[in-house]
Amino acid sequence: LSQLSFLCVAALLLPPVAAAGGAIPPPEEAARMARFVLHNCDWGALATLSTQEGLRGQPFANIFSLSDGPPGPLGGSGVPYLYLTDMEISVQDLEINSNASLTVSLAQTPYCKKHKYDPQNPLCAHIIFCGSIVKVNDSEAGLAKKALFSRHPEMESWPKDHNWFFAKFNITNIWVLDYFGGLKIVTPEEYYSVKP
């Protein structure tokens, strides 16, 4: 074995490197990676189809705080919850067309900086979810509130006259980019059947 080959083999045999919420899953476990990345992210880029004058029908990405559950290794449900108001420009888009995509990336955690991975490097894993935004029903509102307010305590003091409501991203498609060789497709069934 050449020295380079030896180093590559040795790197593959090392245990996974810890990220913010525990050990990062190996690349062959794409569903776990998707759950892991979402659970370790506090925000994501939500893309809608704009309804605004001059932008109608154009993609429009915006940052939203989110949570799939309280921080910690056992707190994640896999469901991205959001706290929204009709006053927000992207929410106005969603009232016309609830379809959206949501991107979350380990670039927002210390993991990628620690390993000197550029956010565009596949090893700095990111997940793209497609689906729709739906208001949660009363039975799910408590879960959404606990998930969001545990990570974003400032939300509790946001102006009440903005008529905030809890919503979730209803996932229909998942793409994982966490290694070289292109995107991996994960079904929602695979995603929800694993733990992060």
From TrEMBL:
Assigned keywords, A-Z: Glycoprotein, Secreted, Signal
Record-annotated CREG-like beta-barrel domain positions: 25-193
Signal peptide: 1-19
Transmembrane portions of the chain: none
Annotated compartments: Secreted
Keyword Kinase attached: no
Gene Ontology CC annotations of this record: cytoplasm; endomembrane system; extracellular space
Gene3D superfamilies from the UniProt entry: Electron Transport, Fmn-binding Protein, Chain A
InterPro entries from the UniProt entry: CREG (IPR014631), CREG_beta-barrel (IPR055343), Split_barrel_FMN-bd (IPR012349)
PANTHER family in the record: CREG1 PROTEIN, PROTEIN CREG1
Family that this chain belongs to: Belongs to the CREG family.
Name used for this protein in its record: Protein CREG1
